[in-house]
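TASK: fixed-backbone design
INPUT:
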């Protein structure tokens, strides 16, 4: 199956990127939605922007395929790439399709001629810095929504009220930043929360993990897990997905544990 190595981003990019990563893979792999967007370089292929996914999808690579990329935090990539995340939802496009051919040619040439994976990740991080310095300011609502739904499973109406926007405004702005509305984002981040809690080792047993992650019961976890990942909860935890972000996470497990079981749907904290 080759290898996959996630690394923590540079400190100044921690609010924008979950991780950098390098891989040499082969065979079939299943990607599970995490509400993130990736930008990656594949040797012999070039640079691709991977939009946010709504359901798991599998792909097969030739033996020894080499790739390097960076993963944006949920909602953090769309304004830097100057495109609505909804336009790249469930698809992969060339960098030139979103930022123009100049960026694509220049960055591809540098990546192709870099000395190794660490240098390629650094090149991607420098590009993200450039996009961040030249791009528009991020919608402040998006960070609020990401942090809220990463910690617990808010009711959409309560989330809109707490953010002082209408549900329609919340839907539109989430669609642009995340690629889908707050209800879909809630389900994807809740599943990420389940995996992060399992990885932390502070909860054992699917029933306890389900309750702490914000599911109504274990059956609710099983249904949502199959719908989003196509796997059972046990199969998901045994897969590659829990290790995709390395030491980082798209959710804050400490705050999840502080909330406690089953308060997410009922609270507006």
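OUTPUT:
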């Amino acid at each position: 199956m080759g290898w996959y190595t996630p690394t923590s981003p540079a400190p100044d990019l921690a609010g924008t990127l979950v991780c950098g990563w390098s891989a040499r893979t082969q065979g079939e792999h299943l990607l599970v939605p995490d509400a993130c967007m990736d930008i990656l370089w594949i040797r012999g292929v070039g640079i691709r922007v991977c939009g946010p996914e709504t359901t798991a999808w599998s792909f097969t690579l030739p033996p020894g395929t080499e790739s390097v990329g960076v993963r944006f935090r949920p909602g953090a990539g769309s304004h830097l790439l100057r495109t609505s995340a909804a336009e790249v939802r469930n698809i992969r496009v060339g960098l030139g399709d979103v930022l123009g051919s100049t960026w694509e040619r220049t960055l591809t040439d540098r990546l192709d001629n870099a000395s190794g994976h660490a240098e390629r990740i650094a090149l991607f991080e420098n590009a993200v810095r450039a996009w961040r310095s030249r791009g528009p300011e991020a919608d402040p609502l998006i960070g609020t929504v990401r942090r809220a739904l990463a910690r617990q499973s808010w009711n959409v109406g309560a989330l809109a009220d707490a953010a002082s926007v209408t549900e329609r405004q919340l839907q539109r702005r989430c669609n642009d930043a995340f690629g889908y509305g707050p209800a879909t984002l809630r389900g994807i981040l809740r599943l990420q929360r389940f995996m992060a809690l399992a990885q932390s080792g502070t909860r054992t047993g699917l029933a306890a993990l389900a309750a702490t992650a914000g599911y109504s019961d274990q059956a609710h976890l099983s249904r949502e897990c199959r719908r989003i990942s196509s796997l059972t909860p046990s199969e998901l935890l045994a897969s590659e997905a829990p290790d995709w972000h390395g030491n980082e996470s798209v959710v804050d497990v400490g705050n999840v544990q502080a909330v406690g079981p089953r308060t997410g749907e009922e609270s507006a904290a």
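COMMENT: Residues 182-200 form the longest helix (19 residues).
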